[in-house]
Amino acid sequence: MSEPLLKVKNLKTYFTSRHSQVKAVDGVDFVVGKGRVLGIVGESGSGKSMTSLSIMGLVPGPQGKIVEGEILLEDMDLVKLSDKQMENVRGNLVSMIFQEPMTALNPVLTIGEQISEMLIKHRSMRKSEAMAKAIEMLRSVGFARAEQIVKEYPHQLSGGMRQRAMIAMAMSCEPKLLIADEPTTALDVTIQAQVLELMKDLRDRTGTSVVLITHDLGVIAEMADDMIVMYGGQVVESGTADDVFEVTLHPYTKALLASIPVIDEERDRLYAIPGTVPSAANFPVGCRFADRCSLVETRCRETMPELQEVRTGHWVRCHLVTK
Amino acid sequence: MATYIIRRLLGLIPTLFVITVIGFLMMHAMPGNAFEALVFNPKIKNGAALYHRLLAQNGLDQSLPVQYIHWIGNILQGNFGISYNYQQPVSQLIGTYLPNTLLLAVTAEILILIISIPIGLYQARKVNGPFDVSFSFIAVLLYSIPGFVFALFLLFIFSFSLGWLPSQGTISASGANAGSFLDHLQHLLLPALALALPSLAGYTRLTRGYTLQIIVADFVRTAKAKGLGSKRIMFRHIFRNAIIPLVTQFGFDIGGLFGGAILIEQIFTWPGMGELSLNATLNRDYPLILATTLLFAVMVLIGNLIADILLAASDPRIRLN
User: Fold this and answer.
1) Fewest CB atoms less than 10 Å from the CB: which of A279, A288, B35, B205?
2) Which residue of chain A is at minimal alpha-carbon distance from B243?
3) Angstroms from B2 CA to nearest CA on chain A
4) Which residue from B228, B241, B316 is facing A121, i.e. has the nearest CB?
């Protein structure tokens, strides 16, 4: 593993209202190495998006709050920074691209204005300089007619083009870390491949670390060096992507893999994991996957398993999996 | 953009034509005319003969289609006729009265915008805070009260009880500063406020509502993720989008404000289009009725046109399609 860039330690992000406490992220640890791609997989409600928003300091307040833990970017704890200091981190050191390219860009500002305003803020560029840089960035993400694209509005671009423009924007200040929250989910399959290829290419060229959030294991297999599997606001399995795919240990990860349809195999019904993710307002005492696990035992319901290093660099949270 | 405006202007012509026909027919459907009273006036000898002479003189003895064509023909040559009642050219009368109404309406428009938008934005920013909750209550209260009721309250409080501001007219007849800018302003304040208050309250609600819709948009999250400051996000990203439905509504309301001015002008004896059109209608002053009706219609159409232009100017999705 390369030198670490981002260390998340025991991160807990809760949503507290008068009546309930929703533990969206409940004690998550992971490390992103310099120049590495970390994939975070999980179902809706597993806490993967909230983990990324916690890193960005964009947890929707006032109910949502990071209640515990550290997010160390090199040696700086992002949790302790003031709002003003966080502004200089966001878009500058850490930037983010979102799932919906259709709605994630401002409809009334040109692509050029939206890219250049970041450069003006973080790099103190003059408007003309920033616009020239925006054109350069657009060209680097594959726009042949970048000079025109800067003058166009989001509605004039297709979904794939918008996502590439988003990536150009996110990369414009050469961030150390790029967080991509389901960057390809809303795109056509052919465009998905292009966008993933582009992100890989950018990573190779710039050495930016990437946190890639997805529910698509195929995307992880394609892109990620390391991966973590999240369930119920916790990490249930983590390791290098190769390790996790080759020697899958956690019953949840196994079930996820089993639910991917295989093209040369005839099946009448696709496999689905029975049941649903437990409510984050009301987690069981024991293992959070217990109710849906085919191997469940009594101890699973009584005590919460710890995340243990079962093989070198391969961590699993399950009573049934030991060294 | 220029071709768009020209196309829209040409589109107004059929609408205007229909309005003139309806206005003309409705006016003639009113019982009586401007000269009928002469017949029964005991001081006039041979009233009936005079009556018929006047009818013929003003072309009223001809059939309605002929009268209509005659009128339209004159208007196209810029001749609006002579008012029966004022015995002056209609265009000259409008030239005297219209500026007063424009002054009143434009002042009201400015008051509405500069007061309601900042309040609405601030409410949205501190949503459900004490200011938002209390002003929401006040706004609904103000919005529910018609402008002429405000006019009476304002007159009672500021003119009769406190004596701070004049109660009628556009300038003082005598006094040290009669006719000065300040004098004009003092006379303008109460009627403009009475005209503006209900809309003003409505616009704070609209500004607040549209802003709250935009605040939760994905692109606002993107703007935050870019590390932009909260002021830039508020104005460049949120307000820039929230203003689109607001300016459109504003354009549509311009015509409404002119209509609303009629009552307010009566209360403050403000010599504007309201007084002119009301007198014209009561006196069956046909040339003046037609001209003022046409003018109000044109105001509404111009308002709609302004709404369309502002919409296109503020929203590239409309402008570029």
Assistant:
1) A279
2) A108
3) 20
4) B228
The verdict on a CB contact (< 8 Å) between A109 and B232 is: no
The three-point CA angle A260-A263-A267 to 5° equals 75
Domains detected in chain A: 4-93+175-317 (3.40.50.300), 104-174 (no CATH)
User: Each residue of B141-180: pLDDT tens digit?
Assistant: 988 888 888 888 888 888 788 878 777 777 666 666 666 7
Structure-token pair, residue B293: 């009706």
Locate CATH 1.10.3720.10 in chain B: 93-146+198-319
Q: How far is A284 from chain B (nearest CA, A)?
A: 32
- Nearest residue of A to residue B317, measured between CA atoms: A155
| pLDDT tens by residue, A46-77 | 889 899 999 999 998 788 999 999 999 998 99
Confirm if A172 and A119 have CB atoms less than 8 A apart. yes
Instruction: Report CA-CA distances (Å) from A242 to A98, A245, A314, B220.
Output: 26, 5, 10, 37
Q: Say yes or no to pLDDT of A29 above 80.
A: yes
The 10s digit of each residue's pLDDT in A245-262 is 999 999 999 998 888 887
C-beta of residue B142 within 8 angstroms of C-beta of residue B149:
no
Residues of chain B with pLDDT under 70: 171-179, 321
10 Å CB burial of residue A114 (0-12, 13-18, 19+) is buried
Sheet (strand A64-73) strand order: A21-33, A4-16, A64-73, A76-77
Alpha-carbon gap: A118 to the closest alpha carbon of chain B (Å): 6
* pTM as predicted: 0.82
A257-266 long-range Cβ contacts below 8 angstroms, 24+ apart: A257/A217, A260/A217, A260/A218
